[in-house]
Amino acid sequence: VTDIVILVVAADDGVMPQTVEAINHAKAAKVPMIIAINKIDKPDAKPERVRTELLQHEVQVESMGGEVVDVEVSAKNKTNLDKLLEMIALQADILDLKTNSDRPAEGTVIEAKLDRGRGPVATVLVQRGTLRIGDIVVAGAEWGRVRALVSDTVEPIETAGPSMPVEVLGFSGTPDAGDRLAVVENEARAREVTAYRGRQKREKTATRASGMRGSLEQMMSQLKTAGRKEFPLVIKADVQGSLEAILGSLEK
To answer: DSSP string covering 62-90, please?
Structure first.
């Protein structure tokens, strides 16, 4: 879902394992990077060290003869944040990032949760078109009518255009992180699409569960060899994304 990656590196910490992971993700997605060297207000900040360390991971900034833009910023003192925004706009211009905003919205669910007071809330990044209150939307196996849109500054808004992150209220259930969101023409179509996707999802879950259990013979031999015991586990998380990560780790 990303067009430009802003990689934030602390000037006093330098390149950390999570920085390397982020670089690998950006490279795998073939997305251009802008390096924001943060915390330059701190006395032990060494921006040059960051630039040298990035070279080890094949990230060459402009001052070192490369093509990657870097900006020294301080989020705390708001130093050079305007320059960073300028660089993002410039990069978007060079990449010619354009999309049609006069069409039904399409986007991706970044995160979803069940809010006690508001019901299912999906954080959506609009990628094409404009999302409006009253639109009938489908995301994965869930559908709903947009009851309210909340911007990243927690302001209620009427419409959300391309490249805008927005919280969408009005879903019948919580969609999964990574689901595609699309506006459909009517409720009948929404029900039809979600019923089909729901069936697919159930089948997938069933096959995964049976695959994990394995055959009875395998289970008996495992019991003999390792004295394995099975125990049921209920996992409760705040948002869809954390739930997915915990499930993934446990299955491994």
So the answer is: GGGTSSBEEEE-BTTTTBTHHHHHHHHHH
Q: Contact, 104 vs 161, CB < 8 A?
A: no
HEC-encoded secondary structure of 98-157: CCCCCCECEEEEEEEEEECCCEEEEEEEEEECEEECCCEEEECCEEEEEEEEECCCCCEE
Query: Where do the DSSP E strands lie in 142-236?
Result: 142-150, 156-157, 159-160, 164-171, 180-184
Query: Which residue type sits at 168?
Result: V
């394992």: which residue's tokens? 17
**Token pair for residue 145?**
């009518």
Q: What is the mean pLDDT of each run of 10 residues along the chain (252 residues)?
A: 90 88 91 90 86 86 84 88 91 88 91 90 93 92 92 92 92 90 90 90 81 66 68 84 85 83
pTM of the model as a whole:
0.71
Q: Percentage helix, strand, coil, to 5, in the chain?
A: 35, 30, 35
Which residue from 162, 145, 141, 164 is spatially nearest to 153, judged by alpha carbons? 164
In this predicted structure, what is the pLDDT of residue 215? 63
Greatest alpha-carbon span in the chain: 65
Question: How far apart (Å, rounded) are the C-alpha atoms in residues 59 and 140?
Answer: 37
Strands 159-160 and 136-139, by their bridges, are unpaired
